[in-house]
């Protein structure tokens, strides 16, 4: 079977859309890009060492979903109506629903425009986790302590303080527990310093973002540690690496919006009656 290029498919889609282009715009992310939904991965490793990668980039469904949200919010703020009535009155007639066809076709082409769109490479995280754990496997307890240490180090770095200084950490609770958590955090930072891993510091700062801290808990779940025992560090690091968003300025998305030829035909028929 003959291969069909993306350009050929795009050209064919434009023909179907009748070339009734109503909007064409190119966007570049100015904040970290979180792809794949709230609890799925932005980065997909295609080999054991994550040398080949794929990314969850914006697509037509992403853009149409965002457009729906914008329209609902805009009309609701103007009319003071609830989202359900706004959806039925304005959004569904334009973007379609389970019982009606969309009047617009959205074509989206996204690409990576940075050589390294991630915050920390797989090899960097692998070095770091091995240094922290001191072996080839990691237990669930060690993984939990690692995530907490990343968060503590990240907050200290954001405040511009010295992670080597125990007084840089503001913690509450029992003295013994505070000391243990501080020592774990200092151990992680010593690993960062040992390898001179600047990008590891940037990765640690991600843990100060509530969304990232929440999704990071995925790597300590029972699905990852089904028997409560240890898992291979390579497997664990791959999961951790895949969670991070893409850097600002690294995702370019072109959006073309076409008016449906069918809608134009129906409007023409209405005008003749």
Notes on the protein architecture:
By secondary structure, the protein is of the alpha+beta class. It folds into 2 domains: 21-35 and 59-114 and 250-272, no CATH class; 122-243, no CATH class. It has 10 helices and 7 strands. The strands form 3 sheets. It has a 3-stranded antiparallel beta sheet with strand order 1-7-4, sandwiched between helices. A two-stranded antiparallel sheet has the order 2-3.
Short key terms for the protein model shown above:
single chain; 273 residues; alpha+beta; 2 domains; 3-stranded antiparallel β-sheet; two-stranded antiparallel sheet; 7 strands; 49% helix; disordered C terminus
Helix/strand class: alpha+beta
Strand element count: 7
Silhouette? elongated
**What are the segments in which pLDDT stays under 50 over at least 5 consecutive residues?**
263-273
Q: In DSSP terms, counting alpha (H) and pi (I) runs of 4 or more, how many helices?
A: 10
What is the alpha-carbon Rg in Å?
24 Å
Q: Which series of helices and strands comes N to C?
A: HEEEHHEHEHHHHEHEH
Q: What share of residues is helical?
A: 40-55%
What is the count of structural domains? 2
- Mean pLDDT rating: 84
Strand fraction equals: 5-15%
Main sheet characteristics: 3 strands, antiparallel
Biggest sheet: strand arrangement: 1-7-4
**In whole angstroms, how far apart are the ends?**
47 Å
């Amino acid at each position: 079977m003959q291969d069909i290029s993306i350009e050929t498919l795009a050209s064919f889609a434009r023909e179907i859309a009748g070339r009734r282009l109503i909007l064409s715009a190119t966007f570049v992310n100015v904040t970290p890009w979180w792809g794949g939904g709230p609890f799925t991965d932005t980065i997909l490793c295609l080999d054991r060492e994550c040398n080949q990668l794929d990314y969850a980039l914006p697509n037509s469904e992403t853009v149409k979903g965002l457009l729906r949200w914008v329209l609902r919010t805009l009309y609701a703020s103007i009319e003071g109506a609830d989202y359900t009535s706004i959806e039925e009155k304005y959004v569904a007639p334009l973007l379609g629903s389970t019982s009606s066809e969309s009047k617009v076709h959205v074509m989206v082409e996204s690409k990576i425009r940075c050589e390294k769109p991630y915050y920390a490479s797989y090899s960097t995280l692998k070095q770091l986790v091995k240094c922290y754990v001191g072996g080839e496997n990691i237990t669930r307890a060690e993984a939990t302590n690692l995530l907490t240490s990343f968060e503590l180090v990240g907050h200290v770095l954001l405040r511009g303080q010295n992670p080597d200084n125990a007084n840089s950490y503001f913690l509450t609770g029992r003295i013994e527990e505070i000391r243990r958590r501080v020592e774990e955090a200092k151990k992680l930072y010593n690993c960062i310093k040992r390898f001179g891993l600047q990008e590891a510091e940037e990765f640690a700062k991600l843990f100060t973002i509530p969304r990232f801290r929440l999704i990071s808990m995925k790597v300590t779940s029972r699905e990852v540690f089904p028997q409560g025992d240890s898992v291979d560090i390579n497997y664990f690091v791959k999961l951790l690496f895949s969670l991070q968003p893409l850097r600002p300025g690294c995702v370019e998305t072109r959006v073309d919006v076409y008016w449906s030829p069918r809608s134009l035909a129906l409007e023409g028929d209405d005008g003749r009656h």
